[in-house]
Amino acid sequence: MAEIEILCWNVNGVRAVEKRGFLEWLQKESPDILCLQETKAHLDQLDNDLREPQSYKTYWNYPERKGYGGVATFTRLEPVAAKYDFEDGALDLEGRVIITEYADFILMNVYFPNGKMSEERLKYKMDFYEYFLGFADSLKAKGIKLVVCGDFNTAHKEIDLARPKENEHASGFLPMERAWMDKFVSHGYVDTFRYFNKEPNQYTWWDMKTRARERNVGWRIDYFFVTENLLPAVSKAFIMTEVTGSDHCPAGIILKL
After folding, report:
1. What is the structure's pLDDT at 88?
2. What is the three-class DSSP state of 155?
3. What whole-number distance in Å separates Cα of residue 115 and Cα of residue 124?
4. Residue 172 pLDDT > 80
5. pLDDT at 245 over 80
6. Positions marked catalytic
7. How far apart are CA 225 and CA 230, in angstroms?
8. Per-residue pLDDT tens digits for 193-228
9. Considering only CA atoms, which of 15, 41, 95 is closest in space to residue 63?
10. How far does Cα 240 stand from its chain's mean position?
11. How far apart are alpha carbons 78 and 68 in whole angstroms?
């Protein structure tokens, strides 16, 4: 039986986190697969060591606009295939998706939009959610086992943020965003962390301006979901709050296949 560790981390700038010891952390932690969000870099801006770290094959997706968005998947396991959008390329113009297909599952590394900037961005976020769900459901209907990880930019339940009452009118905890998370779960996707851990005060993002991490006034917005047919293979799900370098911390799962 193979044991596979998959991590995801919104690094809030891969070049910034490199200066804070990212490559040393990567070699020490040595996950089988690492999914990064908000890389904020084009390949021509990266050193070779970061572009393709030792023993990893890397996939990068980024928009034309430099210093914005972007996702990357580092994998020790050779995928069967890799793609950079859900279907026809109509929605993801901001470098938000990498899909890698393995023998036993398909992994979707997604950086979901933030809806705080404007009504237009909130609409884009909700449209993106729906488009993503339609695509994921089309795979699930074929019996494919899915892992979906990344920054969803929404705290699902009151337990998932420190101050739910104060944020009920803020994007990231709006009723419509939370209702979509309910819908996603009702379609047969399991929040792996909550499957194992029902404790409060477990977060993955903290506001840097208010030094919220020191007080653990945070939000859990970074997730690993799996389809129900893959859940028996998930032996562990966790949050790595001890890992610094970004305003987010990594989350992870271990699969036994």
Report:
1. 63
2. coil
3. 8
4. yes
5. yes
6. 151
7. 10
8. 999 999 999 999 999 999 999 999 999 999 999 999
9. 95
10. 14
11. 28
CB contact at 8 A, 37 and 150: yes
**Number of neighbours of residue 19 by Cβ within 10 angstroms:** 9
- 71 and 39 Cβ atoms separated by less than 8 Å: yes
pLDDT band of 64, cuts 50, 70, 90: confident
pLDDT at residue 117, rounded to an integer: 83
pLDDT band for position 89 (cuts 50, 70, 90): low
- Contacts (Cβ under 8 Å, ≥6 apart) of 172: 114, 115, 116, 153, 154, 155, 219, 221
Find, among 65, 10, 19, the residue nearest to 39 by Cα.
Answer: 10
69 within 8 A of 40, measured Cβ to Cβ:
yes
* Ranges assigned E (strand) in 67-134: 71-75, 81-83, 97-101, 106-111
**CB–CB of 205/221 below 8 Å?**
yes
pTM of the model: 0.97
What is the per-residue pLDDT for 92? 59
Buried b (16+ CB within 10 A) or exposed e, 238-255: bbebeeebbbbbbbbbbb
φ, ψ for residue 35, nearest 5 deg: -110, 120
Distance CA 146, CA 72 (A): 18
Chain centre distance of CA 122? 19
Q: What mean pLDDT do residues 171-175 have?
A: 98
Nearest to 160 by CA among 98, 101, 204, 102: 204
**pLDDT reported for residue 49:** 96
CA-to-CA dists, residue 172 to 4, 168, 223, angstroms: 31, 9, 14
